[in-house]
Amino acid sequence: MKQTLIELLDTRVRAALATVGCTDAPAIVTPAGRPEFGDYQANGVMAAAKSRKMNPRQLAEEVVAALDLEGIASKVEIAGPGFINITLSPEYLASLMTNALGNSNLGVPLPPAQRVVIDYSSPNLAKEMHVGHLRSTIIGDALARVLRFLGHTVIAQNHVGDWGTQFGMLTAYLIEAEQEGGEMVLSDLEDFYRRAKRRFDEDAEFADRAREYVVKLQGGDAQVRALWQKFLDISLHHCEALYLRLGVTLKREDVRGESAYNDDLPVVVADLQAKGLAVESQGAQVVFLDEFKNKEGEPQAYIVRKQDGGYLYSTSDLAAVRYRVGILKADRVLYVVDARQALHFQQLFTLSRKAGYATEATQLEHVGFGVMLGDDGRPFKTRSGDTVKLVDLLQEAEERAFTLVSEKNEAMPKADRQTIAHAVGIGAVKYADLSKNRNSDYMFSWNSMLSFEGNTAPYLQYAYTRIQSVFRKVQTADEGAAIALTEPAERQLALELARFADAVHAVSREAAPHFLCGYLYDLATHFMRFYEACPVLKSEGAVRDSRLRLCRLTADTLNTGLGLLGIETLDVM
Which fold has domain 5-88? Predict the structure, then answer.
């Protein structure tokens, strides 16, 4: 199968439209909203008829007459003013199931391969990771997993904040602390930062020394660079521990922070000046972008060098584009960053193309996301109003999950309950986020995310374990048995399984993991209906073997789909 199901149907409908003279008409094939409308619906006929001043139903009849779906559809009907309803044949659906079962990637067709750079997580190494870093980290990780699954070369870039004046302050404080008490372990980065900042604000001599370290750091002083690197190593160790706990694929070699572009910043500014893009304005170097104007109609300023000669993250971001496209040879670059940075990225992408750092063919995309809200509708905080540390959030998730698991399995060994609680707790936190449209803010709720009912990770994990329990009771099964779809619930489950490829491709195309979450929930729901309506273990012969094959493919699809989201499955819960 070289196309997803929707792509195949879309191609066939477009060919039929072209046959009747509508070469530029969209096919717009989508899953039908209700069973009586068939399985898929082509909605492009009316638009084509309107542009040609034709009766849409008459045009639909001509299209259906030219439509070649032999061996694919058992029924094609015209509905309403010009909708074309397509019902797939059970034999064709069964062939898709057989193909998926015999394929290592479940029959998902691979698109033309690209080199994709994904910029995500990006914590500030001066502080511990907090809940504000969660969305970027897990959305970016899910996208990396999906794109790799589709055969793309994915290059993760953890653009950490590891540069600037604050690191002179922190390095100075680290040196002072080590001189007073030996080896310094940064067990609490937030507290360490606060104490350093207090010293900086209250002690002029310390502040002067910190500024001297900034100059030495930027100048490449070997001793200061070594101390700075030590601080970064300890800070990154905290990040890596959280990545491991979250099941995120980021590694130390994926880190390329702001400091990596330091030497290139003056080169970028000089290049912008030479190309007539950067000009002096009030002592600063500024690019005025006509594409972005204020209320007075004046072009907005994109500052690349401040009056004091310092650089901004706008400059390092330009250098990063130059590196990612020029050195890493990226075809597509995804920036998984807070939606509030939308204007910055629009300006960055525009200037990158003007400067020649990215071509028109290079896909530069801001994968924005909303804010995690507490039950009061405000950004998620502790009861005292402080920022919630990510490590504390994950700890509470596992503790709550352990309580739930213990209530259901009191006799299970504690170590086993803890293993399950980790998978359930972390999975619940990740899925609650990934299942929402990333562009929206969402309300954080322990009760809803840890529920074993509804669109939650525990519900999907339970659906998987339920299938595993079926196979534990089966002594023998024909792994090559023919699949027959005779009952409505069998057919509906098979139809849902056939839509996996389209869901995965939608995530890749739109950089939106919630499409996969919605699909997996629908799949689990259809499986539960199938399980109730079509006895598996009580059936016999060819019927039993066919249903076991549907169970196997459902389990494989749930396992693969949840894996693409970075969520563990369990054989027992």
Answer: Gyrase A; domain 2 (3.30.1360)
